[in-house]
Amino acid sequence: MSAFGPSADWLCNIEAIPNPEVIFGSQRFTAVHRVLDEEEAISVITRYEQRHWLIAPAIRWVLSYFLGWQYNGAMADRRRLVAQLPFIAFRPRWCRQASRGARVLSVRAARLPYTLPRAGSDVSA
Question: Would 118 be classed as within a structural domain?
Fold first, then answer.
């Protein structure tokens, strides 16, 4: 998810410079990317919230901060969220096809040589 929206530097970089190097934990690979459609992105955020139910209040607070409005996790809020913040899927370049199960990385997990800062947390589908 691009927390700073579609004009975030890292997202502009991967649009302008194809095949970025992605570092995810101990894995490093040249990647191709795609923007998830609305239904895929809603599925990703729904599953993330379900898996991390214990910290759901913190997730909602952080999302509300980035969105600029009160996010409460309702389906209408999820639709509004994915309309505002793009969700990006990365897969290794050597994979033959992009699948709906492609790993989705946060802005901080996609470490590009063209973007600063290079922090290291992740959100995965």
Answer: no
Claim: this prediction has a pTM higher than 0.85: no
Give the DSSP H/E element, type plus range, for residue 60: helix 56-67
Asked if residues 112 and 20 have their Cβ atoms less than 8 Å apart, the reply is yes
Please report whether residue 13 resides in a domain: yes
- Give the CA distances from residue 28 to residues 8, 13, 14, 20, 58, in Å, rounded to whole numbers and listed in that order: 22, 18, 16, 10, 30
Q: Quote the domain boundaries for residue 95.
A: 9-104
- Given a contact cutoff of 8 angstroms between Cβ atoms, the answer to whether 59 and 71 are in contact is no
Round to the nearest angstrom and report the end-to-end CA distance of the chain.
11
Does residue 94 carry a pLDDT above 70?
Answer: yes
pLDDT per position as a tens digit, 49-85: 999 999 999 999 999 999 999 999 999 999 999 999 9
Domain count, the chain: 1
Tokens of 44: 């990703």
CB 110 within 8 Å of CB 22: yes
Do the Cβ atoms of 48 and 125 come closer than 8 Å? yes
